[in-house]
Request: fold
Amino acid sequence: MFNKVTAFLQQALETREPSINLLDSFVNHWKAITNYYIETTDESRPVKQTDIPWCLRQMLDILVYEEKQQGEETGPCMEYLLQHKLLETLCTLGKAQYPPGMSQQVMMFFSKVLSQIQKPVLHLINVYRPVQKLINLCGLPDSKTETEESQFLFAVCTRVRKDPYVLNYILEITKDSQKRCSSTSDEALEEGCSGASSPERAPSPPSPSSSTTATGIIPVLMHLGKSRKSRVVLRSMESLLLLVSLPQEDTGHLLAEGTPLCHLLAQRLTELYCLIPSSLSPADIHSYSGAQWRCVFAMKFQRRASRFLVLGVKMARAIHLQWLKGVIQPHLLQMSEAGILVHTALLSCSVRHIHSPALLEELVQFLLGSDTHCEKQQDTQTHILRYRLIEHCNHISDEISITTLRLFEELLQKPSKSILTNLVLRNLEKRSYRLPGSGVTDERHGVESDVLEESEELEEDPFFTDMYEDSGFGSQEPLLSLPSARERHNTRAHTQVADIVNSFLCLVPQEAKTSHSSQMYKCIALSRDWNWPDSVKTTETHPATDFYEGHFLQILFDRIARILEQPYELNLQVTSVLSRLAVFPHPHLHEYLLDPYISLSPGARSLFSTLVRVIGELMQRIQHIHNVTDKLMMIRRQLMGLEEETLLDHVTLLKGVIVLEEFCKELAAIAFVKLPIEEQ
Reply:
């Protein structure tokens, strides 16, 4: 109907232009609206049963047509609308809701004027003042006009996106209101943080606009974002994204310091998080794709907002205080295993979808702290959340251990140097895991190599004396190829790739190099800007000190030491985290995890030495298992889905052996791919 009327009007204007005066027609339509209020006596008659909607459509059509005809100049109809404050009057009529339904018609008219008129108009006082008033009429309790409100606000934000300089007019920011908003937001953040002590209930920090009626475009959009109508929610969130996508940097500062945007959005994230049912399984959470708007909007917003330093930093800080510290932390520190499980899984999923550098920095501070000095074994209270999370990797509940290990694996995939430094590298900086005096500098490579005096020749490990003859494998290929003491003694200053690979496994499939090469290059790209050294740090002569690998590696090594006794799924997750650590191209990390030839200081252990002890235990235990090779092959086929699972004795042990073997293959493949890259 609307298109037909527009076409008719345009045709009439083109064919009978001398007999039609646009201004007269425009004024007549407006007078028809005002006369209705003078002449009508039926106050209950809905607006749709009057001529008001038709008159408003005709006025809009005339304005659009006039603009096309006038070009750059402002036409007489637009001049009349501005000089006689028609928008102001319409806003008043809409507020009165007389006749019933008038507010919808007013919002529709405003929306179409802002979207169809091409010339900038929002900077004009007789436009932005009624627009401001109409914005404050949105978001009322029990509103029946949410759809029209969301469309109107979207039109406003689209117009601001087109003409960014008008943002000041829409936000109604003054110096006094900016100071008041900033101080109120900070107080609300602090109160929300300190008030969230119970994991059973989410905090509800007071909002700067916590009254029943939201005022200002930001609070109104956040209010509409809670609507039960999905289209209203979508339009409101799209409007916010339009505002934070403005290209000017000063708009980010304006939104951060002059509006409660950061606080309200963090509060909404907290509210949505608390609506997630606690009955969700970790597997379902881990497989979540993150496509729904309601759950991931804050992350999408943060990614857009991070382009502006002030807005991104303040938004990240608000999320840290209100969501992470105010809600997540109490849940992670609670005693309920079910609560720990689901909230660790939710946090892991959230980490996967974080891309903003500012938010990632706040997340790392929240989970790990900022300490950079070497850890001490007895230090358990420096950062209580970090300590508890790492302890959860060694929890009595296998599910909690697996889920927490997944969280750390997600962290290790994020582009943050401080994560590796905090968890591992700070404890390897001094290389005190090496036997003092065991390394001399190799001038060709700028690294140290182990040189053993004749009097210090290592004895054979008793666990491995005649290991292949007595293990039951007979003439089969050995499970692992371990270097003897003599081989270690004859090692050259710079260990060769083949020697290291052969230390973990006799043979690595050729295709392993390709598969791990991809992951290797990803880690190199991830750490390219972290200014890591190219070679190991030359150690100075120092008295022997007790080496502590740090809480994180301690737990991982403890888990690997129990690989023959743990569930298959848990072993897979532990080895996955260790493999990811081994791939990173830091020379100390490589030496400690992948070099089997280093001479360890007294009491120190490395990944290789831990595996050696596991193999020693394995060789003793499999002597008491009949047909162990056949059973291992059967278990392998079952895990690959080639055979149906059947009941077998020692199934946990046998699955542990298979994971151990595959882990050693993986380490060998990493070394095979990694060392040539480092030598280039």
About this structure: The mean pLDDT is 79. The longest strand covers residues 439-442. The longest helix spans residues 651-679.
